[in-house]
Structures are given as C-alpha cells and as structure tokens.
Amino acid sequence: TDTHTAPAARRLPADLPQRIQHYIGGTLVDSVDGATFDVLDPLTNETYVHAAAGKKADVDAAVVAATEAFENGPWPRLLPRERSRVLHKVADIVESRDARLAELETFDTGLPITQALGQARRAAENFRFFADLIVAQADDTFKVPGRQVNYVNRKPIGVAGLITPWNTPFMLESWKLGPALATGNTVVLKPAEFTPLSASLWAGIFEEAGLPEGVFNLVNGLGEDAGDALVKHPDVPLISFTGESRTGQLIFANAAPYLKGLSMELGGKSAAVVFADADLDAAIDATIFGVFSLNGERCTAGSRILVERSVYDEFVERYAAQARRVVVGDPADPATEVGALVHPEHYAKVMSYVEIGKHEGRLVAGGGRPEGFPHGNYVSPTVFADVKPDARIFQEEIFGPVVAITPFDTDAEALALTNGTRYGLAAYVWTNDLKRAHNFAQSIEAGMVWLNSNNVRDLRTPFGGVKASGLGHEGGYRSIDFYTDQQAVHITL
Ligand code: NAD
C-alpha cells in the first residue's frame, strides 16, 4: 500500500568494526583456531563483518579468566555500594551512547530505530535498577529466644554463563549482566550469532566504568559450539539462558550432569483476549503494537487474538485496516514501524508460516513480501482471521509480524483457548468488567498478565514464563536470589 516507503540506498553506520573478537581477561582476542563466522546485513543479506567463532578452547580460556577474577580479584569482595557505583557508571555510559547503540542495533537486527532506541534506554535502566537494588539488599536473621541466632550469609556463586538471543540483543544481555555483576559474580557472555555487533561494545563500556579485568568476558560463536561448551563447563555453576524452548530443553539436559543452577526465559504464543465490553479503540491499538512492534520478534508478542463473537466482525475489519496502515520501511528511518527480519533463515521460517496460514485461516492483511521491497527480509504485517485452535499458526511460535484471530462465545471458552498451547509466557486481557478481569487473569496459565494494557514492565515484578515458556522467574529480588547462594549460619547463644 502507499504507506510503505521504498528502502533508501543502504547507508552503513560510521566506524563499523573491522572484525568482531572475543574479550577474555581484559583483552580482545581472536579464536584459538582463527575460525570466524559471517554476520549478515538484514537489508542485503550480504556479509558485513566476520566474527570470531568460539569453540571449547576459547570458552575454556574465558572461564579461566573469570574464575581467576572471582577467586583472587576485588569484585566479589567489594562493598555493594562500590559495585553499585560501577554499575551506575555503566548506565550513564550506555545512556550517553543511546543513539549510537540504537544505530548499530538497528543495522545488525533490522529493528525499527525508534524501538531500538527504547531498548538502549531500557538497557541503561536495567543496570541502574540492579545497582540500586543491591545497596538496599537486606537478608534475614532469625532468633530462637535464649538459644540461637541464625542469619543468612548471601554470597555470589562464581562464574555465571549468560546465553542470549538475537531479538533485542543488547537489552537482553543487560538484563542478565546487571544482576549477575551487581551480586559479585564474574561472567562469560555468549551472545547470539545472528547479531553480535552491539555486544562488542560492552568491553569498552565496562573498561571505562572501571570494572576490574576478568569480571566480564565475551565469547562469540555458534550455539552448538561456544554455547554448548559453556553449558558443559564444570567450572560454570550457573547458566542464565534466553532463547527457544527447544534449545532450553537441550541445555537443561546438558547441564544435568553438573546440577547447574538454571534460569530459562523461553518462547511464547501469548494470547490477547478482547471481550465485547472492552474499549475497542484502545484494544486495537495495543494489540497491533503487541504483535507488530519489534518486528513481531518479541517473546511476549500477543500473537493470538481471541475476540468475543458479538464484536468479532467489527474487530477483524478494523484490525485488518489498521494492520495495513503499519509502516514497513528501512529500519533506520524514524517513520518505520516494522523493519526487516533479522536473518534469511528466520525470514524463511516466518514466510513458511505465512504460507501455512493461508490454508489454516482467512487472510485479511499482508500475506508475504510487501510491494516495493524486492530485497531484504521484509514481511508485510500479516493477519489471519477465523483461525482454529488446532492450527499450527495458533499453536506454534512464529516470532514475526503474523497474528491469528479467533472468535469465542463464553468466558470459559476464552480461557480454554488462552491456555490451550504448550506455552505460558504472557497474556493480555481487555474488558471493563472488574470482577471478570481479575478472575480471568488469575486463571490464565502464564507468568505475566496485562489487563487493559500494553506490555509495560515494572522491573520489580516477576518476569518469566510457565509451561514451555520458562523455568524460574527473574525480576527484582528474584534475580538477586538466582545469582547468589543463601548460606544459613547458626549460632548457639
Ligand atoms: P535460540 O534458542 O536459537 O538461541 C539462543 C541462544 O542460545 C543463542 O546465543 C544461541 O547461540 C544459543 N544456543 C543455541 N543452541 C545452543 C546449545 N545447544 N547450547 C548452548 N547454547 C545454544 O533462540 P533465538 O532464535 O536466538 O531467539 C528467539 C527465541 O528466544 C524465541 O523463542 C523467543 O521467544 C525467545 N525469547 C524469550 C524471551 C523471554 O524472556 N522469555 C526473550 C527473548 C526471546
């Protein structure tokens, strides 16, 4: 449609790195065997940089550096206030470079620049939040009158392995780095291989903020090489993982022989439930944003919309019209609302679901590559109506700008549909009936529910999924708990 802008000539960000390296023990290094992998520009699918392809030997070196920093370095022994100061400095630096970060993230991922900017600011806020939390941290003491005083000695665990996905890379890295470092651990980060560019900035940011050498280490590489070696390393007692449920299952099994601490933020197929009494204007705006923001490459995307029958036809018509107005364009253009998907492999996957959807539902918007975009990983915002609950596009995570709309007649049916997938990450409920809103929300099998609201995060609340969407919750003090041991010390009086 005419709201789609033609892609401008490809402009490369200034000062792109010549190559992307590991960062081990305070030094930028190539892989031991010199291996690299190609990183693609999502607008041209041409290689724009080579990144070091880490294997076991590289992970081993990073774990040695992190172990040395944990056992003999100052970081785990600093006062919380001292660590907090460093983390606030990290936040200041990230904030001051938000435009550059957004530029690089947009270039590497294809995310719309205005949304990438929001993610950069959220990364700074993640550091600030845990910097504050660690100073306010209080632990329990218990008194048995006349007999004992018992207290909790909270301590960092050691080397934390952090494995992250490509959808909002820098922000998701910060969500793990913030609490892992605030609590005094040292880390080895393995970022996603589709998008290693923004992660390469951490080394400079941490050096400038005064983080001691060896506390932060970065190993790039493929999941089955570098990620796998980190998961199977005997000296890495913790793995915090965000990615696909299938990968999570594999990591769970691979970590089992070592009985590692695991935190898993996995996939989703979250429902937005719209009752007839809802504010339809607000519900439409929010559910459009809920699945098309971040190119639909969002774990908490509201990728199924369930609509009460009496407003169903009106909703579908208005929703489809609004989806057609979503502006697809060059990710670097501030007017763009949906950019290019991250990688040709992911593009092929999303496009295959678009084709499947044409047999499973009624196509009312989009349905393939937008006109005027012959190259790059562009997908029109795509809407299928009348989707049955056994359809693959209802059950499986697509992770792109594709949404399934399904009618319902009763609250009970809406609940069964909401809970009728293997996932349980998020849900969104739209109704003006107060009692129904709370009763319905509390019956949903999902880690997070938003009532009459978009996905707005309060960093103190639990974040995470149930069922196939995750294991354990982070957010607020839960993150502090994951990255620390709480040792009980008992004293007889
Ligand atoms: P992915 O599982 O393919 O990869 C995630 C990370 O795991 C990458 O760094 C990858 O290299 C690594 N990896 C792959 N195989 C591995 C192995 N065998 N051992 C160790 N590491 C391995 O996921 P993705 O495609 O990068 O990300 C998209 C997925 O992430 C979606 O399912 C999305 O819902 C999910 N996600 C979840 C959340 C959340 O908070 N719940 C947030 C963002 C993304």
TrEMBL record:
It comes from the Bacteria. It comes from Xylanimonas allomyrinae. One of its GO terms (molecular function) is 5-carboxymethyl-2-hydroxymuconic-semialdehyde dehydrogenase activity. The active site is at 265. This is 5-carboxymethyl-2-hydroxymuconate semialdehyde dehydrogenase. GO terms for biological process: 4-hydroxyphenylacetate catabolic process. Residues 33-489 form the Aldehyde dehydrogenase domain. The keyword NAD applies.
